[in-house]
């Protein structure tokens, strides 16, 4: 691993972000990445965060038209309430703060504690849970669907609304709409290695893959013999469309598509995989309004990919297209 | 009666156990989790040690546990940080400001602490979580410290065949069966540290 | 690998690029990625290309303010002259065409043949060779320094000049200036696996690394026991600065810095590595005018990184900052 | 005299040899290259087969070789595509339009072809490239086809101890020593195919 030590990876990365992005206010001590102009805009503040190891999520999405602040935890470990409190205080300009929380027990509990404390400090805080991963059944018998690729859609679209000056309840409602309109499915071709453990989080023999994986190096729901990109796309897109069907809404409405790499899969392969995803969606009569292909919600050095689709109405498309200027997502300015 | 020294000893013993077992806890968290439970608790209990060392010598048992709980919350993260933090904070609150507490009072306080964990996390015994060690372990405190340790250890072992319904392991469905829950294992360490401390001093 | 078959990876990826980037004209048959407006701008045409497996290089750099066209070869195999001819014809609007060629025997020979044929067809063609890799001694006893990370700087800055309407000789001169002002050094923490071979191109045991690698899966100049990020940065930045010193120019002038991932190294680690690079440059009194951290000139799923520095005068900085709108590099519009 | 059929047979034998040895050529290209030489030539000679099959039966030897050379240039890429393409194109040009050519004419033409390769790539024998098999191999044609094959094979083997000065292997410096050059190996295949074809028909 390209590190100094397992203990310092997160702090080292924040030092690097500070050096590479003078336009951001990176508080290495308190572990918060903030927009420099977060407090001056009179906008709703958008705060997200989670374990590190999913870069560019979330720190790479801080900036104009997206997040106001991000709180990176240790690798695969949700951040602690102090970080979110500091972020909330740093971005609140009186319009209130939205916490965007991926649905993992740790993230939920820590953001919940932070929200309670922030409200004691007099801030208005709303929370939205992202839970788009169809590989997990959302029932009393699980911790619920995980938050994965849809986080990018939620952060981008809520960020655009906040940038436009939408009030907290509207930003939160849009964020919830995006989440409810999004579903994801992920596949691993290799396990990942956390700096602390130093060896793969699970054993995946050559020639096998894991279907229905999360983004924390956990194994998936099922192990199979290696499949072609086309076969994998069939399974993933099928699962996502089935999941979307359960949410209601028009089966042939336009979608935003994210073909996301888990970290170690070459972009060459991701584009080839996207060709299959696009082919299947065309065959199913689902128009792809916008597509994004790349490594956005990763799992360290895991090989594999995920597909996220979001049914987008005119308003969501407009907000998706709105200018954004962050380290990892940038257009329109 | 148990004085502040006893609680410091307990937390120190817990920290030592976590240090010793951190790699094993992380290893248990690999097949059904995200391979960080040992690192998480090691970071937290190292901070607890520092916090206790800095705390006024006159700090009462309840305040010590609350301090430890707050420290875990602000340093661990993940699921186990808020849960263990809540366990200790709530137990500490129940103990009040008395400089010495009875075994009965500690038992009651821990029951309240475990209840707070169940409420915060929404889990129940049988879900393959820390509650599978905490609940029987604390219940057995009514009998003896030794019984509490044995019950907690048995509870942790008994998570192996369980299908997880809470926490990350629940994502695996059937594949969670056959693995021991890391949180239940660390809970058994905490109650073992308590029992060892009580036996060594009573 | 996330592929259908080794034979189809390049075509499949081009299909995916076509689907993901309607703003580009992707000719899958002829294997050329073009700007849709390449011919209408009255600009000098910029054509690059090389083996696939280095994505986003080059196809991801086609668009406003950067390349007019890219020619992807098979994985790690330079493209054939027909591709460059087709690209040249597709982008020439009478102002001439610049071929940006990484210095590998295959790329050099194929672009040379294409240039000869294009000139027979009446086009004005200039070629610029990129050769920035200090791990290779540039002597009669080697094929010369390899072209690696500096390619991005050359393509961006020459692209900005072309976009502004600079004539062919000026665009070519700037491209050469950028190349002569740039040096790189790369490190591998793992080998990569090509689709055709299906196994790692060389054996690198856990706990060892290769210093001075290229971007084609070839081993480096030297194998060493694993080093920390700080130690690796010391070696890499030291080698690059030594190489730059030989080119003359002010030792304390501002630089553009590229901390580039080889494909499988997590962005978290790349940022941590960048922190070390920035620290060393600060200690050496070299101001970093602009920094770019990410996977830009990759080697499939190789773990590792490279450092490229380019001594940049006011004019180069201005052109670096000029708007660019491509799949992989985008700012200012 | 060698007619068009002879040249078709030679190129077919070369294509068959490349097909048989492709994995080995790629394997040789791994430690000192980029692991594509076999795939490159397989793609090229497969296209050559198709091109020859589509060529008018009356096509003369020189034109056949030029067609094969152009086909390699437009399908192989890499370093070997232009170099082998130039070898065949230049050899073909030298042969002119005669429907039959003598062994001496072929020898001269191949010498010109090898010269063109040296000029295009800027390499000389001893640099650990295809020239280390081509140059001695073609020179030995003055003796016999068998001698050409033996010299080419010996030349390929003799690249093992050489420190590379051209092509990708030169990036490795000292580490290029001890490996056989893939291009010299494929060149030996081409001259072996020529010798086998000549022996089979003479
Ligand atoms: N809802 C819950 N209630 C009680 N305990 C839980 C719950 N969710 C998870 N746990 C416990 O937390 C442990 C995992 O802790 P840790 O690995 O530190 O956090 P994370 O799962 O966030 O990585 C599990 O083994 C389980 O015992
Ligand atoms: N300058 C050169 N002159 C002659 N032959 C060369 C030269 N450079 C490379 N070669 C030959 O080409 C072979 C490699 O071919 P190939 O692997 O197909 O191309 P690439 O190196 O572009 O991947 C080398 O083994 C060597 O014999
Ligand atoms: Mg965790
Ligand atoms: Mg865990
Ligand atoms: Mg090659
Ligand atoms: Mg090669």
TrEMBL record, chains B, D:
What Gene Ontology terms describe what this protein does at the molecular function level?
A: glycerone kinase activity
The protein's matches in InterPro entries, at most eight in alphabetical order, are given as: DhaK_L_YcgS, DhaL_dom, DhaL_dom_sf, Dihydroxyacetone_Kinase
Q: Name one GO cellular component term.
A: cytosol
UniProt keyword list? Kinase, Transferase
What is one Gene Ontology biological process annotated in the Swiss-Prot or TrEMBL record? glycerol catabolic process
Looking at the record, the residues that make up the DhaL domain are 5-196
> Would the keyword Kinase turn up in this protein's UniProt record?
yes
PANTHER family under this entry?
TRIOKINASE/FMN CYCLASE (PTHR28629), TRIOKINASE_FMN CYCLASE (PTHR28629:SF4)
Could you tell me what this protein is called?
Dihydroxyacetone kinase
């Amino acid at each position: 691993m390209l590190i100094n030590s397992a203990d310092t990876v997160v702090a080292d990365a924040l030092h690097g972000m500070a050096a590479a992005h003078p336009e951001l206010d990176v508080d290495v001590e308190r572990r918060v990445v903030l927009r420099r102009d977060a407090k001056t805009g009179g906008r709703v503040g958008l705060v997200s965060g989670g374990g590190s190891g999913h870069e560019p999520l979330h720190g790479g999405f801080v900036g104009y038209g997206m997040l106001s602040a991000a709180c990176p935890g240790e690798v695969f470990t949700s951040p602690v309430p102090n970080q979110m409190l500091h972020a909330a205080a740093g971005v609140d300009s009186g319009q209130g703060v939205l916490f965007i929380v991926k649905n993992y027990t740790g993230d939920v509990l820590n953001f919940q504690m932070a929200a309670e404390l922030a409200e004691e400090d007099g801030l208005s805080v709303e929370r939205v849970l992202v839970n788009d991963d169809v590989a997990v059944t959302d029932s009393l018998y699980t911790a619920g669907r995980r938050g994965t690729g849809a986080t990018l859609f939620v952060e981008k679209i809520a960020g655009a609304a906040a940038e436009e000056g939408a009030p907290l309840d509207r930003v939160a409602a849009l964020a919830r709409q995006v989440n409810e309109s999004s579903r994801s499915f992920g596949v691993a071709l290799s396990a990942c290695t956390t700096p602390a453990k130093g060896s793969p989080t699970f054993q995946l023999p050559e020639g096998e893959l894991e279907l229905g994986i999360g983004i924390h190096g956990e194994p998936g729901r099922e192990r199979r013999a290696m499949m072609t990109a086309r076969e994998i796309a069939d399974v993933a897109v099928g699962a996502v469309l089935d999941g979307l069907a359960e949410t209601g809404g028009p089966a042939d409405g336009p979608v935003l598509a994210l073909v996301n790499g888990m970290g170690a899969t070459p972009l060459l392969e991701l584009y080839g995989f996207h060709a299959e995803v696009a082919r299947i969606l065309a065959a199913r009569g689902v128009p792809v309004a916008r597509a994004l292909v790349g490594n956005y919600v990763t799992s360290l050095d895991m090989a594999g990919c995920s597909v996220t689709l979001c049914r987008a109405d005119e308003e969501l498309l407009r907000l998706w297209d709105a200018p954004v200027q962050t380290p990892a997502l940038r257009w329109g300015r | 009666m148990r004085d502040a020294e006893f609680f410091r000893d307990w937390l120190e013993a817990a920290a030592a156990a976590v240090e010793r077992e951190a790699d094993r806890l992380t290893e248990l968290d690999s097949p059904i989790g995200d391979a960080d439970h040992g690192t998480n608790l090691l970071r937290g209990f190292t901070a607890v040690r520092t916090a206790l060392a800095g705390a006024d010598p006159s700090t009462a048992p309840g305040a010590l546990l609350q301090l430890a709980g707050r420290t875990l919350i602000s340093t661990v993260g993940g699921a186990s940080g808020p849960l263990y933090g809540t366990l200790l904070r709530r137990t500490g609150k129940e103990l009040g400001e008395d400089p010495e507490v009875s075994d009965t009072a500690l038992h009651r306080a821990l029951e309240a602490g475990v209840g707070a964990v169940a409420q915060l996390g929404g889990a129940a015994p049988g879900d393959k979580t820390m509650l599978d060690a905490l609940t029987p372990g604390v219940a057995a405190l009514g009998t003896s410290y030794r019984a509490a340790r044995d019950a907690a250890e048995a509870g942790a072992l008994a998570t192996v065949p369980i299908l997880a319904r809470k926490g990350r392991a629940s994502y695996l469905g059937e594949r969670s069966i056959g693995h021991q829950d890391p949180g239940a294992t660390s809970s058994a360490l905490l109650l073992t540290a308590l029992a060892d401390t009580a036996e060594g001093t009573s």
